[in-house]
Design goal:
Blueprint: H1 14-23, H2 26-33, E1 36-38, E2 68-72, H3 76-86, E3 99-104, H4 120-132, E4 137-141, H5 148-154, H6 157-163, E5 167-169, E6 176-180, E7 188-192, H7 194-197, E8 200-204, E9 206-210, E10 214-216, H8 237-248, E11 252-261, E12 274-283, H9 286-298, H10 306-313, E13 326-330
Helix pairs in contact: 1-9, 3-4, 4-6, 8-10
Length: 332
């Protein structure tokens, strides 16, 4: 019988138990992790964004619901469905007539098996869930690093999203607007227009290794809203990540860990660098999500990822993920 407390075996701490559960894959993980609930304090209040452009897409916190869910199973679409269910249902996040923008990672001219872009089935099912909640428009977009049309096609994301009726918008130089991001180092910058018209924004990154930040997860995915010379931001990458996250304030983050690019990220290319973990980590605390996945797959503590501590100081979430309300589930 599965334990209701992942720290109940011997002297294992709650943090150690959470990490052990995420590192497990397949059916064995479900036996160990089914319906585990960890209670914790609520996240601190969100910071104030730039006064002239209010980008708060968040939903109200609910102490009866988890702030983070970890779902494991064979079918990526089933992972998305269960994540929404565990978090209170898609209707908690998407209202009738909402314009919803989904932000997967579509940066690279790579196939799904190379794990450089978000799993197309994760994107497609998220689109389907938004329609089911009554969305008026569902847009899937990203500002790619490689040639955009190739990235959208080869990743499988364009076809998968269109198959569920989404608008797939490739980056267009005419559709960037100069915006005051209101950040500590990011002020005026060109932002792709779909992100400025959204009622709700869902962040759909994939978990990958990254030389500059150790891992590229939810926060790093926000580079894909920007035009211009984004490589300039690498000089102060951790603060720029926090400025972008504070500007976007997403409705929800779903980190695709179905395939994880453990080495040679963010571009990848060699399937030998990819581990299949069949996992989705989702929730409303983007700091906790990044901290958890970085620790589980790369053994990176929050101190090794300065943007997490900076984000915590800005009120965007908490890096001590073991104190965030978390539920573990298995599907299939």
């Amino acid at each position: 019988m599965a334990s209701n407390n992942p720290a109940s075996n011997g002297s294992m701490t709650r943090r150690e138990a959470m990490l052990q559960l995420l590192r497990l894959t397949g059916a064995g993980a479900g036996t160990a992790a089914a319906a585990v609930w960890l209670s914790g304090r609520s996240a601190p209040p969100l910071s104030t964004v730039a006064a002239n452009v209010h980008r708060d897409h968040t939903v109200a916190s609910d102490a009866a619901l988890p702030e983070m869910v970890v779902v494991q199973g064979d079918d990526p679409r089933a992972l998305v469905r269960r994540a929404f269910a565990d978090l209170g249902g898609v209707g908690r996040f998407i209202a009738q007539h909402d314009v919803v923008v989904l932000k997967p990672n579509i940066a690279w001219d790579r196939t799904p098996e190379q794990a450089a872009n978000t799993n197309p089935d994760v994107v497609a099912e998220t689109v389907k869930q938004c329609w089911a909640a009554g969305a008026k428009r569902v847009i899937v977009t990203d500002v790619s690093c490689n040639e955009a049309e190739r990235c959208f096609y080869r990743s499988g994301i364009a076809a998968a999203a269109r198959g569920e009726g989404a608008e797939v918008i490739l980056p267009d130089p005419e559709r960037f607007r100069e915006v005051n991001l209101g950040g500590e180092i990011l002020q005026s910058w060109k932002v792709f227009e779909p992100f400025l018209i959204a009622d709700k924004v869902i962040n759909l990154p994939i978990a990958k290794q990254h030389d500059l930040t150790g891992a590229t997860l939810g926060f790093k995915n926000w580079y894909g809203i920007l035009g211009g010379e984004r490589n300039r931001l690498h000089q102060q990458i951790h603060q720029s990540l926090v400025d972008l996250a504070a500007f976007m304030l997403p409705t929800l983050t779903l980190i695709d860990c179905y395939r994880v690019l453990l080495r040679n990220g963010p571009t990848g290319g060699n399937v030998e660098d990819v581990a299949v973990h069949k996992t989705l980590v989702a929730g409303t605390d983007p700091v906790a999500l990044d901290a958890y996945v970085a620790k589980a797959y790369w053994n990176l503590d929050a101190d090794a990822l300065p943007y997490l501590k900076l984000a915590e100081k800005r009120g965007l979430g908490r890096s001590d993920f073991e104190h965030v309300r978390t539920r573990f589930s298995q599907v299939g």
